[in-house]
Write a structure and sequence with these properties.
Elements lengths: L5 H8 L5 E13 L3 E7 L1 H6 L5 E4 L9 E9 L4 E7 L2 H8 L6 E8 L11 E7 L3 H13 L7 E5 L9 E2 L13 E2 L1 H5 L3 E6 L7 E2 L2 H10 L3 H4 L2 E6 L2 H13 L4 E4 L15 E6 L2 E6 L6 E3 H4 L3
Parallel strand pairs: 7-8, 7-13, 8-11, 11-12, 13-14
Antiparallel strand pairs: 1-2, 1-6, 2-5, 3-4, 3-6, 4-5, 9-10, 14-17, 15-16
Helix pairs in contact: 6-8
Length: 301
């Protein structure tokens, strides 16, 4: 392999951007459906994380394999990051069982981030299940940015949402007035958000989150549609459906993929996925080539 090969150049581009830290647990909050939010102080990661970044966490000293977790919030001033996950398997069960004050080894921040375009300020953020955290991070980033963003966050889940529901006072004239439940954090930020579920969750839209997205997009004028940009994270079937919505309305769309990982730093190539590139089909690593990709490249027609 020559020194100028794309693979080597991609690996070199990640040098100096990853940090190994001993984070300290500062908060643990459990939610129904075996969901857990863990807050940790990790100053280097918090200072360098961007929406879409994730961390590779050692859940317990007795479990050698780390787990990739999306960052839900990153506060540079306090050096804190929050991760949200559903307990599946021994590793995440061990992580959920940690206590405040425990030290946790992590590598981060990893991965390519979302890149909003100021030319499209109407950002549609779609999160499904454990794909919700990157959307919260992106929403907070847009809130804190000087540009005039107009985010709308739509979240879908078939288990209870990992937050207490509250009724939104922010108007959604394009939607039935009974669909009013939202996330208190987003409501406090004055960011419009709505929920979708097939599980009769109070105040939520009964249907898939992509159907809810269509409701909003159909309500927009041609001029407003030209300002829309879509961002999504969630299970693969949902992302495929989001990509279809983006094609239907001829909108750009970025998706954050979920994939099993071993090293998470580009060495093992165990998380590769097929992606369409200008040079033709290629296998890309979700950990460092992603996790954010152009939806049309990952889910072509």
């Amino acid at each position: 392999m020559s020194a100028s090969s794309p693979a080597i150049e991609a690996a070199q581009s990640n040098r100096g951007t990853l940090f190994v830290e001993d984070a300290t647990v500062v908060a643990i909050e459990d939610f129904p459906g075996d969901q857990c939010v863990v807050g940790m102080t990790a100053p280097l990661t918090a200072s360098n994380a961007r929406p879409g970044s994730f961390v590779h966490v050692r859940c317990d000293d007795a479990i050698p394999m780390r787990r990739p977790l999306s960052i839900m919030r990153a506060d540079r001033s306090s050096g804190r990051i929050d991760v949200l996950f559903k307990v599946v398997g021994d590793g995440l069960r061990a992580l959920a069982g940690r206590e405040v004050g425990d030290a946790i080894s992590l590598i981060g921040p990893i991965g390519r981030a979302f890149t909003p375009s100021p030319e499209r300020p109407r950002t549609l953020l779609i999160g499904g299940g454990v794909g919700i955290p990157p959307m919260i991070f992106l929403a907070e980033h847009l809130k804190n940015d000087a540009a005039s963003w107009q985010p709308l966050v739509l979240m879908g889940s078939e288990i209870p949402f990992p937050f207490e529901l509250t009724d939104s006072a922010l108007p959604t004239p394009w939607l039935d007035a009974q669909v009013k439940s939202t996330m208190p954090l987003l409501e406090g930020w004055r960011i419009t958000a709505r929920l979708a579920s097939l599980s009769d969750i109070p105040g939520s839209y009964r249907g898939y989150v992509t159907e809810l997205a269509r409701e909003w997009l159909r309500s927009l004028s041609a001029e407003a549609l030209a300002e829309v940009d879509i961002f999504a994270c969630g299970p693969t079937p949902m992302l495929q459906a989001v990509a279809a919505v983006a094609r239907e309305f001829a909108l750009p769309c970025q998706v954050s993929l979920e994939e099993f990982m071993a090293c998470a730093v580009g060495g093992c190539a165990g998380c590769t996925v097929p992606v369409q590139t200008a040079a033709g089909p290629a296998m890309k690593r979700v950990c460092v080539d992603g996790p954010v990709f152009d939806a049309a490249a990952v889910f072509p027609e």
